[in-house]
Design goal:
single chain, 147 residues, alpha/beta, 2,3-Dihydroxybiphenyl 1,2-Dioxygenase, domain 1
Length: 147
């Protein structure tokens, strides 16, 4: 295969990697914490003051074991312009659930903007919603079949 590098077997067997955190730009730490914990029911895992203007704020969905969100307050004009559009308008994050209907109703009851309503796809039931800054999320109850 052209352009493909294959690691020797002894190297590939020892390696374990995973994405631990994804930074998401926010306008304000406290409003972001309130949105994720009160409306999406994420857990606040850490809120450590680093300087007068910077905090280390980590949230994650209930039951998450590896990937978490680092809420990073935009510090420059360029970062501020990227809030809510870190991926150029594409769905940014994928929130898997064990009960689509429960979590979809939660989005509705908290007035969270639904961009595309529920649809049944080969990989599961999905809807697209926007967070408080406009970042797009998929809410997915997987069917067990990956796209």
């Amino acid at each position: 295969m052209q352009g493909t590098t294959v690691l020797p077997k002894e190297q590939s067997c020892k390696m374990k990697q995973y994405i631990a955190q994804i930074a998401i730009l926010v306008n304000d730490y406290d409003e972001a914490i309130a949105f994720y914990t009160e409306k999406l029911h994420f857990k606040l895992l850490e809120d450590t003051v680093l300087t007068e203007t910077k905090r280390w704020v980590v949230v994650a969905p209930e039951g998450a074991s590896e990937c978490r969100l680092l809420l990073a307050k935009a510090a420059s004009d360029e970062q501020k312009r990227s809030i809510g559009n870190q991926t150029g308008g594409r769905v940014f994050l994928f929130l898997h659930t064990d009960n689509f209907q429960r979590d979809y109703q939660n989005l509705l009851s908290h007035g969270i903007r639904i961009v595309r309503g529920p649809a049944t796809e080969a990989y599961g039931t999905v809807a697209v919603f926007a967070d408080l800054y406009g970042n797009l999320w998929d809410l997915i109850e997987p069917s067990g079949k990956q796209p």
